[in-house]
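Handout, page 2. Input:
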Amino acid sequence: MNLVPEKNSDFSTTEYWDSFFTKRKTTFEWYGNYDNLKRLLTKYISAKDIILMSGCGNSDLSLNLYSDGFINMTSVDNSEVVIANMNNKHKTKYPGLVYEVEDILNTKYADERFSAVIDKGTLDALMPDGEVESLTRAMKMFNEIKRILKFGGRYICVSLLQYHIAQFIFSYFSENGWIIRVCQCTEVEDSPDFNGQPVFMVVCTKVNKIPGANPVLEWNPDGLTNERLDSINDLLEIVIDTQKSVSMCFDLTKCQMEDMSNNYRFEINCSQTKKPRYTIMIVESPTEKNPNKMTFAAFIVPHGREHEWLFSSEEGQDILRRNCNVDRLAIISMHRGQIYKDLKQVQQELSRLMLKIAPQGVIKRGETILFLSLEQQLGVRKIIMENKSEHSGNFVIEEVDGQNNETFRRLVFLNMPHIIQSETKLLIENEKIKIDYSHFLSDYIPYLGLGVGIIANQLDKVPKILLIGLGGGILTNLLLNAYENATILALEIDPIVYEIAKKAFGLIENSRLEVEICDGLEYLCNAVKNNDKYDVVIYDVDVKDPTLGLSGPPKAFLEQDVLNNVKSLIGEDGLFLLNFVCRASDVKNEILNVLKNNFKQLTSLKIPEDINRVLLARNSDKTFDADLLEQTAAYMNNCTKSNPLIACDVIDISALKENIEDI
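Output:
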């Protein structure tokens, strides 16, 4: 029995519905049954209300309301077939139930006859599209509802809120000065026959229009919390985002994500601030894809530790999933600037969402969602400074508790909030905070130091180093502590960053270090004109645009004229070292080819569990072979062990050889 019309516009015709209800005599519930809607619906009507049920069809909604005490109700439909069926069905047992044939676009009822009009799918049927014919029908219905509703009465519309419908209903009633509240019918989404399309209840309250007043627009996501919005566009945006998120959760539950391989990432915003509150990373087994068999758990990352390899890299995330022994793991990260009470509050806040993204078998088996974490506390993230840089934008300096009661201080630029710009570990000695100069966020820092050591280990050399990109000063401190005879000119374009390095990261300032606030490109050009020479030129400068696939160095520093300047400064005997960070393989290959064409020797040192690479280049025939690098590492470790501020090895010599990459 085919009940689907040939075209959407048939939904608005009486002939279609007469045929529909002739063929289908059993109850048909559009957009959920009474149990799905009762909590919200009964919040906006009372037993004293005189109710009009518009486009009632053969739904049991009128019967259910009548049975719950809402007896002053008239149910109407323009299909004579369905009204005759409903009267025959209920006239004996429920004589007070009134069913009448009426066209909701033009009824016989008196002005202000009703205190509530309920519309469950009628508007959607009358507006299958945004064409003039549909808009005209909807306008007539709204005008009729406005006429027959009492002052203070409510038009309650249950709808899928397709964009053309949402835009029209919001515009019409806001222009008439009515109060508009949009509620999400979450119980519909929890029903076993939910099809992935969220249902909304739009409650429009008839009040007098106040000239010049802003429209009252509210969003109610849970039936409890009302959020006041500034514009129709804001309300439309929330509806669209809700539709996308509900659809995504439905697809996750059914394991039918089209663009998903084995992981998927999305953010949950704070309802008050509109800023990200949680990041959810879904990690799945590459083998088990049956939604009825998959196991599931949620893992809460301790506050401030989301940058760690285990939680931020695909490999680490899959190891975490396997350690949790589940087929799908939701890895939950918290955001800076948000307030979290404790683990219990986070679990309560996210429990409903976790149910919505769990494979459907978890719900069918009646399992509760398992929340896991490394510890019983949320973790501590304390922001000690917030400011804005002219060059780098907004930034924070924060202190985060790690494992073993360790505390780390970090610089993070908020245009790239998931990337730590600089990090140091804090020590407490005699109740005073000190910098741990032996701590490095990434091995790329000691590996850059290793490159400098090739020069420093030559007996007749007093290394003269040009460092472009001071940052937090972590690399500078290492070079000063490791090589007592080295002199450094560090260039930094941002004066605020220089102040941060001094005040927050323990920059060692002595006669062997000079810091100049300038543009590195301009300095390179002027240095060549002045016939300056350096033993080592280091690029440790980042890219401010996170969308380019290249995080450092900026392409401007790799232009041919700039590389000519670098070659002139280091001559045949000097070294060129780069902290190279590139995610886009085509960009990576392009840059490596440029460097190979400019330097006789080019070697890459990979950083395990990191995307960074340290590139070593020079224009002599001397290679960067494993023996040279291992001998230099031993020399460097001896230097750092003898310095009381470090007092330990900084390079694992046993792993060095396998980290040398062919280019």
